[in-house]
Amino acid sequence: MSSFDLAEAATTGTHLRQTVAGAGSTRAAAQRLADFFRTSLVDGQGHRACAQVSVFLGEFGAGGWEFGAGDDGPQTARVGGPGAEVGAADAEVGGPGAAYDSSSLLRLLRGSGLWPADDASAGEIDVVLLHPAGGRTDQSDEASTPSAPSTSEQAGRLLAFGGPVRAGQWFAVTLLVDEELPPDVTEFFRPVAHSTRLALLSAGASSAEDRLEAAGALTASMEMLVARRAAQLQSAVAELRSTSARLRRSEDELRRRETELREEAAVVELLQEVGGALAAELDLDTLVQHASDAATRLAGAAFGAFFYNVLGETGESYLLYVISGVDRSVFDKFPMPRNTQVFEPTFRGLGVVRSDDITTDPRYGHNVPHHGMPEGHLPVRSYLAVPVVSHGTVLGGFFFGHPEPGRFTERHERLVTGVASQTAVALQNAQTYRREREAAMELQRRLLPTLPKVDGIDTTSRYLPAARSRGAGGDWTDLIPLRDGEVALVIGDVMGKGVRAAAIMGQIRTACRAYAQLGLAPSEVLEQLSVIVDDIAPGCITTCAYGVLDRHRSRLRLAVAGHLPPVLRDREGSVSFLDEEIGPPLGVGRRAYPEQEVHLAPGARLLLYTDGLVERRSRPIDEGLHQLRKLLAGPVGEIEADCDSWLDALAGGQHDDDIAMLYLYRPEDAARRTLTVSRDYPPVSGAVPDARDLVSRTLRAWGLAHLANDLMLVTDEIVANAVRHARTPLRVELRRSADRVVLEVTDSSTHQPRLIVSRPEEFGHRGIFLVDKIATRWGTRMIDGGKVVWAEVSTA
Q1: Whole-angstrom Cα distance, residue 40 to residue 9?
Q2: What is the distance between the alpha carbons of residues 478 and 491, in angstroms, rounded to a whole number?
Q3: One domain for residues 240 and 315
């Protein structure tokens, strides 16, 4: 009932006429109408909507209104008398007494003007909505008097409609429902009222004129309802259109605001990203490119550039630039713009230049030879330039262009100015870092040696500063040729970065070379270095691995002070870490360091390295050592290529610490193979001629007879000295390599031969001058239980 609409009003009229077809009398038609309303009208849940339906029919005669009441003939009843209701269908819902009696309903109808007091043949069909406050059939007339009818603007539960059927005859229908009905329901029931009248006329003895007039009234009512609903629909459509337009405007506004908020969020995120990146970046080239890319995005420019000043090694200033938004090659053929009238104010730090159309600027186009943009230059109308200034010094400038005019706003200017301020601080940090790094690396380059060529071995070294650090560190390598054909291998690492670490490293390296030249054993060298470190840099952790390679005996003596162990690959390809004996780092005072001895035959390879090669923040050191072992156990070849490939595999440009490497290979080719002959002699005078004979025969067998006389003289002096001072058997060893011959005499005496000028009356100390004159190099090496005196003669 509450959702009764135009379509239901039309279909209800059709059903009403079908319901009364064949009724035979108006009274029978009224009863059918009452039953129809009772059963056909439902609520939203499909239940019967009407608690009571009453249909009244009356004719106005000489005695007033007469109501038909029974099948046995007409009866006369006054308004409100018993039996006044011709057709009724009482509700079962609501319990006893839920319905109104006929008298109460007629009083309501009369009070509402829906039932005339006298003949009203000229009356019209009407529909009213009433809201009775009480009045049950068991109440007295006074107590049951219903309230006045409700107005059309009030909701009610009693719907009534009626009017003249024909001249002198009247009908009325009341529908009592269990829900509040909206006021506009009367509008839809007006055609139903006309359809009820037409149905009553079609069931009784009515004239064609009456039926035609009733059909016309029904049509007029439907047309009026349709017109009214159409007007309401048009109004609703107009309102809907207006609402839709407002919604669209609201949606557009929301989308615009959402876009603005997204753009603002993107700007904030970009500014945060730029600030963090610039604060953390120390590489100058990366920094300026990042700043230029970010500023170009913030400005909305078609392309941007950042020109900046740097200082060369000799202190001269020169200009560099980066490009954003387009390929750098676009600007390769153009000169630097510093001296033009448009660009000069920015490089002088005079302030921001923003132009909606730079081609209309009075400073534009005055500089020869182009008088404007050079041929081939990207078109520029909108122009924005922001200087980058720190403490009154112009470090560079941002320049942005766009081919359309008016693209850069005050907001763009503020954003780029903010980036320029951050860039100025970052540039200062990066330039300070670069100066410190270059100073430390230059110091380290000056301190690190160039590896000498050593016969019988191939060597190479690498030094890489950390990918992201404040300068070089204290890593170093060294290769020190010693007397008697031995060579010292050194690698070390001083804790820290920068000039201090490099300076400490230089002092330690110098001391190490000095101790090596004294012929000290590896353990003794580290013992002395520990004292030095404790003196020059107390508390500074320093690690070192020091080894002495005897190429003739293929023997490596090694001592390690807190350093990662060297890696040895033998000629068969087996890989091992030399970690049997490792002592504490240097700088813990004087203490003995353990020493180990390994065989290093031709075909073997040895790698000494610092921890930067195998240790990274994202990789445990054990994993790095395992990977290093796999690399050395794999295919190997030319030593330079080996070093490069291993660095790529283990560091890949992402190393957190400095890397130093010393790589040694003993070739197996016959031309470089060492030949050795040795004999043991008792410490007696007869050992001297026997040793001379051994040297002479060996040199002739080697095709070096031209060296025999010289080397026999050297043998005389050294063996004679050993016989004079030794108490145990002595050993004579002769070794030949590609370009030299080495004589070694080992004895148990600690007395070392020295160049001492004798007085004329003295007999001794003259033979050693003969050795010094003949030998290319000579020296003494102390060993456990004695010494080795050696002399080297070139085969040339």
Answers
A1: 12
A2: 6
A3: no
